[in-house]
């Protein structure tokens, strides 16, 4: 059996999960591990019985692998991915794909130019409820989309932000809740409802002592004239909610519970034809059931990546798909910082200028107790 040899770059936290997933696959082998922290790299190398590196260029040039996964700091994703692609390796990047749309473009273009695969780890797309939602919308269950809503609260204590010099800084992360906690749901939201063409956002920082945003409220406009609303924060322990309304009905999601509301007829037709001035359009409520016993998570994304390299499957999340969430994130930050609506595609030059200014103003942290740990819910 032909095996794909995969190196893992960045193994302080999530990269270890990548290693474990690779070891479970019959048609893949772990080729090397790489981390800028020599002690971490050496420890993991011995643990997994593979060569270890502290410089990603040396690791890639070692020719021990034909693919890499990237779990390094956000800012490094594009630099590492482009170098790997130019050197003939397929690439699977952790979320966020990268920090800026311009850097994401570089990744996508490098993959095309070198005829290699570029994929992004948005493992929540493999979850049963997401698959079912995509199926319902694609088959026209609610008709043309007329309104969207996504409320995605998170919670993080101050100690979380004090666990790394890079956390919650423009220089270290390139953003706050949008770039760190929110990308998974942003990916699902845009996967199901599409990208808006314009975003008018407000961003701010409250409660935590950090320099990046931890609360975002955004008004969305879509190409077909639909409106939407998006909210995220790390200041509110709560549940996730999404609504996607259409001509023929609406879908409401609370956490992973799906409710479908079917209208008796398309709402525009009813509005134009009813003779009763007090009439209300009838609708039926249906709890949507779906298969739950299916492969999900990092294991499934990495399995699919391997199968795509072997030309047996289509990528679940390509680089082009991963870029969409970066567009959304950059548009929110750009609008929040300028006080003006931001169009999508985002103006690359304008965003780079903004980010360069924010990074130049970024300050070193005074209170840090380093902890290289990954949120347990994302290790599945």
Question: Tags for this entry?
Answer:
single chain, 380 residues, alpha/beta, Rossmann fold, Dihydrodipicolinate Reductase, domain 2, 2 domains, nine-stranded mixed β-sheet, six-stranded parallel β-sheet, 12 helices, 15 strands, 35% helix, globular
Overall description:
It is a single chain. The chain is α/β, with parallel strands linked by helices and about 375 residues long. It folds into 2 domains: about 140 residues, Rossmann fold (3-Layer(aba) Sandwich); about 170 residues, Dihydrodipicolinate Reductase, domain 2. It is built from 12 helices and 15 strands. Strands 14-13-12-11-7-10-9-8-15 form a 9-stranded mixed beta sheet. The two termini are about 25 Å apart. The relative contact order is 0.16.
Mind sketching the topology for me?
Blueprint: E1 4-9, H1 14-24, E2 28-34, H2 38-48, E3 52-53, H3 56-61, E4 67-70, H4 76-86, E5 90-94, H5 101-114, E6 118-121, H6 128-138, E7 145-153, H7 158-161, H8 183-193, E8 198-204, E9 215-221, E10 227-233, E11 241-246, E12 249-254, E13 257-263, H9 267-273, E14 283-287, H10 297-309, H11 319-338, E15 342-343, H12 348-361
Parallel strand pairs: 1-2, 1-4, 2-3, 4-5, 5-6, 7-10
Antiparallel strand pairs: 7-11, 8-9, 8-15, 9-10, 11-12, 12-13, 13-14
Helix pairs in contact: 1-10, 4-5, 5-11, 8-11
């Amino acid at each position: 059996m032909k095996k794909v040899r995969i190196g893992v770059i960045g193994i302080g936290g999530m990269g270890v999960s990548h290693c474990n997933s690779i070891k479970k696959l019959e048609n893949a082998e772990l080729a090397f591990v790489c981390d800028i922290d020599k002690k971490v790299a050496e420890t993991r190398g011995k643990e997994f019985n593979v060569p270890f590196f502290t410089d990603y260029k040396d690791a890639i040039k070692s020719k021990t692998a034909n693919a890499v996964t990237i779990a390094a700091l956000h800012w490094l994703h594009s630099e590492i991915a482009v170098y790997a692609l130019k050197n003939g390796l397929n690439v699977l990047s952790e979320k966020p794909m990268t920090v800026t749309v311009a850097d994401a473009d570089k990744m996508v273009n490098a993959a095309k130019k070198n005829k290699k695969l570029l994929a992004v780890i948005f493992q929540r797309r493999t979850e049963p409820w997401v698959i079912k939602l995509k199926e319902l919308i694609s088959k026209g269950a609610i008709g043309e989309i007329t309104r969207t809503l996504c409320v995605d609260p998170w919670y993080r204590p101050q100690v979380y932000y004090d666990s790394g010099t890079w956390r919650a800084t423009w220089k270290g992360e390139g953003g706050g809740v949008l770039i760190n906690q929110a990308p998974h749901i942003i990916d699902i939201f845009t996967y199901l409802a599409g990208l808006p063409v314009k975003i008018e956002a407000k961003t701010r920082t409250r409660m935590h002592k950090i320099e990046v945003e931890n609360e975002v409220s955004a008004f969305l406009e879509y190409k077909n004239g639909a409106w939407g609303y998006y909210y995220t924060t790390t200041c509110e322990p709560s549940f996730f909610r999404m609504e996607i309304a259409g001509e023929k009905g609406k879908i409401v999601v609370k956490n992973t519970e799906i409710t479908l509301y079917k209208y008796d007829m398309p709402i525009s037709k009813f509005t134009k034809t009813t003779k009763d001035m007090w009439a209300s359009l009838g609708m039926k409520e249906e709890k949507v059931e779906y298969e739950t016993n299916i492969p999900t998570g990092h294991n499934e994304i990495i399995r699919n990546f391997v199968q795509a390299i072997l030309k047996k499957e289509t990528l679940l999340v390509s680089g082009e798909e991963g870029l969409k969430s970066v567009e959304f994130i950059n548009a929110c930050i750009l609008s929040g910082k300028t006080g003006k609506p931001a169009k999508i595609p985002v103006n690359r030059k304008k965003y780079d200028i903004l980010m360069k200014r924010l990074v130049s103003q970024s300050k070193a942290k005074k209170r840090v107790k380093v902890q290289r740990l990954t949120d347990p819910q994302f290790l599945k």
